[in-house]
């Protein structure tokens, strides 16, 4: 069967709504393969054991629209509606690795989206606070956390630029939308000795993943890690 024919057949199956879902064992095999691909693509910054275990466990196919679930274990971003995307697994691994999480950590995520990254964080850290500005995405993610039993994840609808002051300070902060600058409220809510990972850059221009470290004495160091492409951080700031 040539590729075009396969693609056309597949498209027709999707169109007529008769895609047969894969079995749990098939998803599991694809998930293992995705994690191996992520490790291979990580080069000399491979994800640690706790991240590998988390990504082997979290069922990414439950975080994408049903019609895309068969593509969930490709190392690609995918659309999740409202013009937003679930991040590429390689980037999820890289950002999580940069946070150097410990199991007692309290983590803040800005940009819940599908909830996949928050679920990976929740497998490793003690608690995750995640903020999403688009209400239907936030509600959908909250339902997912509940049905998948992630009771250590707390969700909020709002502009994550301002963080979650009542729950601060955080051991680690992860921003999953591109900002033009490090949001000062987030820096304030980071514990001394804590780490923040944030993509910086203008929308549709080259953005860089930045590692921001607050030293125990309160001083801040910033390091540019890799070029990335994220949807812009929205909001009124
Ligand atoms: N972490 C997500 C992917 C994030 S895509 C996942 O694992 O699926 C970026 C998300 O950030 C989008 O859902 C977008 O709506 C959200 N976002 C953008 N600006 C925001 C803001 N100011 N506050 C909170 N969320 C924001």
From TrEMBL:
The record lists the catalysed reaction(s) as: [protein]-L-isoaspartate + S-adenosyl-L-methionine = [protein]-L-isoaspartate alpha-methyl ester + S-adenosyl-L-homocysteine
Enzyme Commission identifier(s):
2.1.1.77
Q: Does the keyword Magnesium apply?
A: no
Keywords of the record, alphabetical order, are: Cytoplasm, Methyltransferase, S-adenosyl-L-methionine, Transferase
Query: Which SUPFAM superfamilies does this UniProt record tie to the protein?
Result: S-adenosyl-L-methionine-dependent methyltransferases (SSF53335)
- What biological processes does GO assign it? methylation; protein repair
PROSITE patterns listed in its UniProt record: PCMT
> What Pfam families would the database entry show?
PCMT
Entry keyword annotation includes S-adenosyl-L-methionine:
yes
EC supergroup of this enzyme: transferase
Name the InterPro entries on file.
Answer: PCMT, SAM-dependent_MTases_sf
List the record's Gene Ontology CC terms alphabetically.
Answer: cytoplasm
Q: Indicate where this protein resides in the cell.
A: Cytoplasm
Q: Quote the catalytic residue positions.
A: 87
Q: Which GO terms describe its molecular function?
A: protein-L-isoaspartate (D-aspartate) O-methyltransferase activity
Q: What is its main location?
A: cytoplasm
Function text: Catalyzes the methyl esterification of L-isoaspartyl residues in peptides and proteins that result from spontaneous decomposition of normal L-aspartyl and L-asparaginyl residues. It plays a role in the repair and/or degradation of damaged proteins.
Which family is it part of? Answer: Belongs to the methyltransferase superfamily. L-isoaspartyl/D-aspartyl protein methyltransferase family.
Classification via PANTHER family? PROTEIN-L-ISOASPARTATE O-METHYLTRANSFERASE, PROTEIN-L-ISOASPARTATE(D-ASPARTATE) O-METHYLTRANSFERASE
- Entry protein name: Protein-L-isoaspartate O-methyltransferase
User: What is the protein's species of origin?
Assistant: Nitrosospira multiformis
Name of encoding gene: pcm
